[in-house]
Amino acid sequence: MKPQECALVVVDVQNDYCDDQGTFGKLGAQLGAVQAAAERIVHLVEVARRAGVPVVWVKTHHDRSTNSPTWLARRTRKGLEICATDSWGAEFYRVKPAADEIVVVKHRYSAFVGSKLEVVLRTLARSTLIFCGVTTNVCVESTLRDAFMRDYDTVLAEDCAAAFTTAEHDGAVHNVRTYFGRVAGSATIEGLWATPR
Questions:
Q1: Largest CA distance in the chain
Q2: Catalytic residue among 6, 59, 83, 106, which?
């Protein structure tokens, strides 16, 4: 994981997923692990920037133009919209892209579906993608799997990703480790990126 070969992909660290007043907080989801992961992501992003590793930010937006009947028929959220375009819920939680960093907007679980992510990654020409964000078992894993299918070397920053339950997080970590890539802690990644370039 040499820094010159890596890009950091930060997935869906947004108010509706992470903040107590967001959609999932209002639905009673346990947000402690998600909020702790967000704090660790803040640090990992700074580590990446110091090492010259590009940071690609992924955020979800939903609105009438992308909410197909099939998409709306997925598991109900009791009528509460998640990350509605231009809403507070869609804003980043505790993290902030730098002015020169790329933000990719997605409308499905995988950030490769219907977005500019594939072109962005080809342009960066980095062979190893480090994934972090929320939730581990849905949007992070979906995007990581699709990256693996496109022949990227994929790494899940385990302590910088979280789900609403330990079982969901652990299941996703198992899937990645067994089938789709590598799993590493942020301290390990930081140590590798701290090596002089």
A1: 51
A2: 106
